[in-house]
Write a structure and sequence with these properties.
2 domains; five-stranded mixed β-sheet; Sufe protein. Chain: A; 561 residues; 15 helices; disordered N terminus; four-stranded antiparallel β-sheet; 30% helix; alpha+beta
Amino acid sequence: MKKALLIGCCLLLIGAAALMASAEAVETLVGKGKGFGGEITVTVTKQGDKILSVEAVGENETKGIGTPALEKIPQAIVAANSTDVEVVTGATVTSKGIIYAVNNALDPVNYPWPIAEAKKSAEPTAVTAAKVYQGFGLSNLHRLGPGSDDTGTPVYSWNQVMAHALFDDEGRILALYVDQLEVATPNYDGEGMPHFSGFPGQGGYNWDVDHDAKVDGKTEDTLENFEAEVAGWRTKRERGDSYRMGTGTWRDQMDTFQRIFTGMTVDEVEAWFAKYCSDRNGRPLNPATTKEQDLAKLATLTDEEKAMLADVVTGATMSLNDSHGNIIEAIRKAYENRKPLDIKGAASMGLGLYSTHRNGPGVDDTGTPVYSFNQVFASTLFDADGRIVAIHVDQLEVATPNYDGEGMPHFSGFPGQGGYNWDIDHDGKVDGKTEDTEENFAAEIASWRTKRERGEGYRMGTGTWKDQMDTFEGIFTGMTIDEIEAWFTKYCSDRNGRPLNPATTNEQDLAKLAALTDAEKAMLADVVTGATMSLNDSHGNIIAAIRKSFEGRVDINLTVE
């Protein structure tokens, strides 16, 4: 009898527990994470400790590469009832972004969103100077290879090194921040590599979807794919832990070089490179090398210098100047472009790149479309409250060579794609096609010039692009990025991103102006005497680049006496 009662009680308890579990409310949670192309949003449905479903949305993830993870990772999480799942091969960054987003939904305290906005160093060394100069340098370089894919089609890429530097009166580097964008043809088998297939109409390019060194087909020859590819470009710092090298990540290695070069002049940086790096590949000499050419160079060094190099190569082995990019040249350009600052100091510095595609303007006289991509670079200094102390914005616009604007940098696609219609004399009439050669590929990239570098040659309705950007920089100094975005929303046209002109006759703009005070209208009237260009349209998103410079900022602890 007692045994029967005991069994009965146990059954009742089990039944009660099951009833309680079934009675638990079904929760719907939303979480966010950072994917390869931008923000990923997940919707998680759970009941008690059981994950019932996961839906992931990442509109900017690369089609065919990142997008499979949007389906597979949620399925794996539900099956395992855990976020401890394997990433999808070829979509590591997207996979990790989904996993983080689910963790954010389930445990927002330990997985916050947004992820820590500032990349803080442990204890930044205090820097003091009597005078400070700010410079930005961009180095563009083509690359042939590495090699070709399994069908014999060559791999190509271009590499852009960006250097944001602060100098003292003697030209010594006070602070340095370098980043790089490498964009390859999609038949390159390296996972996470940003790619470009050429422009719509050029037939796409061989595509190694799963990075197994075997071509799986061709990329879609569509405007949508062109847009998605450009939106998916990520710098080597943005690629973060997914871009590992022999010694740490690219970011880790670049941080090592930045520490070495701080305190040097650019001449001294170039001398250091010439003395301590291999003439074969531009990498720091490794005292353990067996290469005869490197051994001959090492033989001229003292034991102390060799010991220094042995320490360097524990943290940095990558090249400072090879076909992957010319870091030394970018630092030199930052010095040559430097401008004096009237500031009391800065708590952090940032460098943001934002890339967008452009369809048009229109077509040439043969009906062939004009395309371009636009890259906005924002170099910023912030105070401890996130207010801009100094800002320098530049932009590179690269168009197909049938664009009829004189001085526009152009790109014809990769060798083997047939070149592109070319309006040589910019008279609105196509004169032929560009040469479909590796030499022309190299020459075009070498000729790319930013809008500031184009100087007086790039005139707009009100002054030059440089003059107009200087006006905006003056307005934004002293603001936080949130305040800049609020200024843009309030005072710029919803049609084209340009500052509202009180003299406009456009009804949509007039409606927006009607909400402003007379003082605000007077301010805008003053603004448009010096700046009328858009801050966010198909020519480039300046606001987004400034935001990225803030999100990627690092501490510098600078005081100007």
